[in-house]
Amino acid sequence: MCVSATTSPLSSVYSLIRSVLVAALVYGFSLGAIYAPWGEAHVPVLFSVFCGLLLALSYHLSRQSSDPTILWSLVRSKFFPELESRTPEEPPLEIKDPLPEKLRNSVKETLHSDLVMCPLMAIITFAISASTVFIALQPALSFVLYILAGVVGFFTHYLLPQLRKQLPWFCLAHPVLRSREYSQFEVRDAAQLMWFEKLYAWLQCVEKYFIYPAVVLNSLTTEAHTVSQNPDKPGAYGRALFISVAGMKLLRSSFCVPSQQYVTLCFTALFFQFDYPHFSQTFLLDYYCMSILFSKLWDLLYKLRFVLTYIAPWQITWGSAFHAFAQPFAVPRILTRVILKLV
């Protein structure tokens, strides 16, 4: 459903069950919306409910930890306090670990925030979906959203970070966007927030909570409207399941890793709309497949960058002579892992 790698079997099972339950909950609304009558100026109420629930639940899942022990600890302390008394004798107060209590408070604050934000997001999404804006403004709306997401993503996640680096593009000797304390030898006051830092935060919020959800909802509406033209066609049940799973995966990816989405979205739009349109099925299917492929490629890139940086010849000065001798023998294992990763 969404990339949530973990090394704990308990966390893996918990994350899988959580995603399956959400997909099963919204699947009924998706299937009902496909068999409901659509029109050029009419979106079924079931589909609007589906969009609202999907967005709210995806937002909630993206903010939750994959470790169920923290949530269970919070539930146990609130509803089963007698179980707390059965635990082994606590250490003295002066050496008590404060981390569990801080984690419980963090989870509690997140749940309180989601209790307010999720219904609000569901209502707003329901209203926008019911307004038929995603049908009446096609196909111009799709291209506007793709261009807007690409421009904002490029400016936010590539251009601004490069201008703040010590050596922008390795062509300039100093950062273009400097902090107020950059030229000071010793900083005596608290650091001040610069205008480009505020701009970066606002652009991320707009991108994360407005642009990418609009792109996904637009794709979901187009897909469901296309499937509803032939609801008796074999595979309608599978298409409804795909709409639910793909929508949840793309929304959770947008909320969790928005910095990588503009590359995937721009490549999908350019590749399937202009370069090879005969390979395209629907934009939702294209975007879903490319998001999985690009997530694997990003993971592979980070691993290769780490390995190549570690065994680079210019790093031998801080290492040992044995490392310079032993690292080449790790190449077969690295190649094997790369091949397995690609498979």
TrEMBL record:
**GO cellular component term of the entry, any:** membrane
Tell me the compartments it is located in: Membrane
Give the superkingdom in one word. Answer: Eukaryota
**InterPro entries in the record:** Pecanex (IPR039797)
Keywords in alphabetical order = Membrane, Transmembrane, Transmembrane helix
Parts of the chain that traverse the membrane: 12-35, 41-61, 115-137, 143-160
Bilayer topology term: Multi-pass membrane protein
Chief location of this protein within or outside the cell = membrane
The entry sums up its family as follows: Belongs to the pecanex family.
Q: What is this protein called?
A: Pecanex-like protein
